[in-house]
Amino acid sequence: MLTKNFLLTKIFILIIAICLMQFFSMGSYGVDPEEILQDQKQELRARNISKNIRCMICQNQSIDESSASLAKDLRILIRNKIKEGNSNEEIYKFLTDRYGDFILLKPPIKLSTLALWLFPFVFLLIGIFVVFWHNKKSKKF
Amino acid sequence: MRKQLLILPSIFFLLILLIFFYLLIIDRNPSELPSTLLNKNVPKFETESLLKEKKFVSSDVFGKEIKLVNFFATWCKPCRDEHNYIKRFSNQEGIEVIGINYKDNSQKAIGWLKELGNPYSNIAVDKNGRIAIDWGVYGIPETFIVNSKGIIKYRHVGPVTKKIYKKINLIINEIE
């Protein structure tokens, strides 16, 4: 019995270790050296914007991570716009005007997306309620 | 009463299954997005023309009659696949098709058109892909219908197939 438990503990630790690995690994980036701006502040701004912009070709990656050619074009475009003195809002608007809200990895909070943002909390409340209700009932037995 | 309630999760589960099944069988491509440019004016741009000496100026080209706009490149295999349909639009249906040569080698593009035939009345050269970004293009081939007022009425991402060919003809007949 003891050995079986020991084995289970080992497996458990292994799983935890695999899960934790992601925190120590560096993310992969698609940014090429020649794209990087001289001004570090501007470069940081460009990186932060790029992280929120979806690569339309590999749709679950941001353009910061993707090496698709359209992602590269958009990264360069964002950097040029920053150099020209555009604000972050202007850049986001430029992109959503052309590609729609879908290009933002995080959907904006609007009337049409309210359900998307609120339902997780609604479901959480329902879940908590069900658990309490269930516990109350089972105590009687 | 409690026993009767137990049936609820099963019904709920069945409902979810039905929804998934429905989404599975309907004709839907989740990676295809509606264009935000629908019912808006074509983006303004000026560039070289692939085959003509004169510059390609968008405001001169659009706004007179219905036009198809087709983004293509020689390196794009699906573009070759749809080329016959693009030719049919201009030869059989008599629709003027504007080509936009996306990130391509001009010499190769000219050779490609010589080999396969040229359905385009004019071809804009988009060397660095900047024009495509203004059109919200993300995967060529892409085809747009622009009405006689220069307003985008339809957008198709991917190669024109038999089904899409019919659909585009239908839409053009409707707005004509």
What does this structure look like?
The complex is a heterodimer of chains A (141) and B (176). Chain A is an all-alpha fold and 141 residues long. Chain A is built from five helices and no strands. Chain A has a domain at 30-103: Helicase, Ruva Protein, domain 3 (Orthogonal Bundle), CATH 1.10.8. Helices cover 63% and strands 0% of the residues of chain A. The longest helix of chain A is centred in the last third of the chain and has 26 residues, at 114-139. In chain B, strand 1 (46-47) and strand 2 (56-57) form a beta hairpin. The A-B interface holds A 56-57, 59, 69-70, 73-74, 77, 96-100, 102 and B 31, 33-37, 103, 128-130, 133-136, 138-139.
**Broad shape of chain B:** elongated
**Secondary-structure class of chain B:** alpha/beta
Number of domains of chain B: 1
What is the CA–CA distance across the termini of chain B?
A: 63 Å
> For the report, how would you describe the main beta sheet of chain B?
5 strands, mixed
Radius of gyration of chain B: 21 Å
